[in-house]
Every structure is written in C-alpha cells, then in structure tokens.
C-alpha cells in the first residue's frame, strides 16, 4: 500500500484570533469531522514549529502546518494528451473528451482522465499527487472537469459546490420542444430497480433539482438546444430529468433518446466559474462544444448565462 504524506502551511488571519485549531480547520479550511479524526489519529498539527492539540488557541499571524498521512493512489500513470484550460499549484481544469471515464474501474484500469492527469503531474513536477476531481461527469459527457491538487483546495471547492456558489453550465440537445422557455425540474432520483446503471425518478429517491433555459429550437432535427444548471448532483441527473419530461438527450439510448444524429448523449460542460481556493479570485472558464454537438447546434457559440 502506498502512503501519501501531504503538508500544508497556512497563516492565521486576525478574524480567527483566540479560536481553537479545531474551529479554524472546520471554518477556514472546511475540514469534515472525518478528516479531523484522521488528523488526530495519523497526522499532526504544528503551530510555529511546535506540535499542538486541537484545543490550542490561535493568534493572528500564527503559522499552522497540517501533516496528513493517508492511503495513496494506485492509479497508473499513462500518457494521454490533455487539453488543460487552467493550472496552478492548487487546481487544474481540463476539457474531458466524450468516451473517457474520469476515474478507473476494476475492469478498466487505464485510458481514463485520472491516468492522464497522474502522468502529467509526474512528467511536469516529478510528483505523484492524489487525484481529486471536485465533481465527476459521465463517460460520454464532454467538457470541463475541475481537479484539486491538495486537500485544502479540495475541501474549499467542495464547499462551493455544495453551497451552490460554483457555477457549472451544461449545454444539452434534447428531442422535441420544451413546454416553457425556462424552468426548474424538481423530482427525486433513485437507482432503477433491477439495474446497477440506470436511474429513475422515484419518490423514494434523493432530492434532485435541475434548471434549464431554451437557447433556441432546432426545427431541422426536431430538437431544442438548452443551457442547463444543476442545483444538486445526482448520478445521471440531467439525463434522467429530461427523459422524465419526455425530452431525452439526443443520442442517449439508455434513457430513450434517438441515435440517428449523434452516437453519444448530447451533453457538454461548457462553462465553470468558481473562486480560487487560495487567492479568492474569480476563475471563469469556457470550453466550446465539440464538433459532434456543434453540428447539431448549427454552431459552437458560447451559451449565455441564466
């Protein structure tokens, strides 16, 4: 088993004066209770060079070093060309092509985004970081994937995702014409009985909310181009919700879509907007639709905000 040691150094701001280390880690670094237990069990907190307990009171200007040891990744590095839209010491954003898994499976250990990213990091920095995608997208969904390079950044970005302050805009081409120019689809989603892959709308499922706006209709193919935003992040959420509304994604044969115009579901993460986890600056990235969806759209123009 590989053991990964990750050290982080943070300077305490004045607003955290007289707070405990534990309070600081929860509020400033967004550490979960599980992670705090892991630090207590197999890590260390060092303030100004001296190991301290979680109850230790902090002063403005204190330098905290967090040391964490955990099971490392067994993902094998593999050279696969990457389209990187943004990268620094904390995060990277890549444009994942359709047909590629984000993370390896037991029966499919290679050819994934994770294999490619690990290779890239080793080749660039000679350092095998832990692969931490802030969110995942389906194999056949293309577009922007946000990846964190350390646990501090991961936790801060995950908080933005769960608090809905991170913006992700998808474009989708669906069959037919939506009943309204924009709307909210609010139906719970659960795993479909008897299937390990499919999901369905079910009142026994988890809450799921999808927002959409019709960008334009595409009469030549009997379809509509939508901009879509997720309020929640259930597996196959956009695909299930739109299919349930009677407007499956073109190419999404799993959920009733036609495959005569495109050979994969017509879904692409076109834009992501978030606050940088260290600098606080706004990072706003855009990725045009690939050619297969672009042909359906009539163009690969940027979709406006909504």
TrEMBL record:
Q: Which SUPFAM superfamilies match?
A: Alpha-L RNA-binding motif, Pseudouridine synthase
Q: Which residues form the active site?
A: 138
Q: Cite a single GO BP annotation.
A: enzyme-directed rRNA pseudouridine synthesis
Q: Which InterPro entries match?
A: PsdUridine_synth_cat_dom_sf, PsdUridine_synth_RluA-like_CS, PsdUridine_synth_RluC/D, PsdUridine_synth_RsuA/RluA, RluA_PseudoU_synthase, S4_RNA-bd_sf
List the GO molecular function terms. catalytic activity, acting on RNA; pseudouridine synthase activity; RNA binding
Keyword Metal-binding attached: no
Q: Which Pfam families match?
A: PseudoU_synth_2
Q: What is its EC number?
A: 5.4.99.-
NCBIfam families recorded for this chain? rluA_subfam (TIGR00005)
Q: What does this protein do?
A: Responsible for synthesis of pseudouridine from uracil.
Q: What is this protein called?
A: Pseudouridine synthase
